[in-house]
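User: Fold this; tokens only.

Assistant: Input:
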Amino acid sequence: MSSLPVLVAHEAELYLWDMENEEFLNQGIVTAKIVQQKGSGFEYWLTASSDNGQLLAHKITQDMNQRWSNKMLTLTWNHLGDNGSQRSWLFRFGEQVAYDTFLRTFMQSLWEALHQASWTNIKVCKMLYTPRFRSSNPSSARRAKLHS
């Protein structure tokens, strides 16, 4: 995964949900990345790595049940392992800019993976149906209203 093209990378705290204690446990500071699989068209991966190597690589799919918190600057998602076990993970970003950039890149990657089409080819009016696009790009939303 380390040789894949990186779309976004930011420092974040990584947490793993502990079902027994019903709390997120801090796994340390990581580099949170979204990478694109070479030659796959629209296949993206959410990864976390530290000085000790890669800690996780989860394919970005609609089944992740991702949740974003603007207040806490976090991304929470679920991952179903090959053995059927489900785990919940969380990235907590230290800065609003890092959070916003990661959110925008994640949502575009998820849209492309789901629709198997490039985000750059989508019409602005259709982008407005993407809630995170509307909230993170108010000037684009205004331009689209002017052209409709």
